[in-house]
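check this one:
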Amino acid sequence: MNFVNLECFCCKKFFKKENRRYNEAIKFGWKFYCSTRCQSEVKSKQKQVRCSNPKCKKIIKRRIKNILLSRAVFCSNSCSAIINNEKRKKWKICITCGEKYYGSNKKFCSYPCVYLIPPKPTLKISVSQIIGELKKFNKENNRIPYKKEYKHTKAARSRFGTWNKAIIAAGLKPNPVKFAKVPYNYQRMTADFRIGNTYIEFFGLAGKIKSYDNLLKKKQALWKEKNLRAISIYPSDLFPKNNLEKIFNHL
């Protein structure tokens, strides 16, 4: 029995085939296969491909038509979910540190960055400028500035949340503020101090916050209703000139 050395049309391996089978294949124009497996693989409309998940190394079979349509094939639903979820992620840039991130937070990559908000593009006063000016004032005057002394108080509160947080960010210690909180005995409102029968109120945020101004009006109405003796002190009474001696002289 004579044999002919042939190359498999599918796997390219060499194998031997009977001479009569070889002549028969030539006559009918058949291709040569080393096994029925190779023959079925070529005739099949499926193709061996690697899973489109880069971390997965599985080889799978998919119809050529499906490969051309989707341009991505996966061995499982989990691999498909990993890649598709990655594509859906909307990467953002943290407005504080500039790092790339994704998530539900619209502006910041992490919780600490919320407290280090940089200046808005429409504003000119930066975080570094505020800290530098506070340090400079403290060095020249050996104390921190009053709110009214610092021209960028609103920007400092916008960047750091509160005035005291801006002072702390500059490495300085806020001034301690202690009030006696003397009750009026008529409502749940309290005064800051009391000298004899006279109540002392320091309205440091007057004209700054609407709710604070409403409370101020309620207290003034209470004084009038109950005929109470009260003295109102405003930041203008302390700066630029201290007028407390004049205000309390009669007491």
Q: What stands out?
A: Residues 210-226 form the longest helix (17 residues). The two ends are 134 Å apart (CA to CA). Residues 1-44 form one domain.
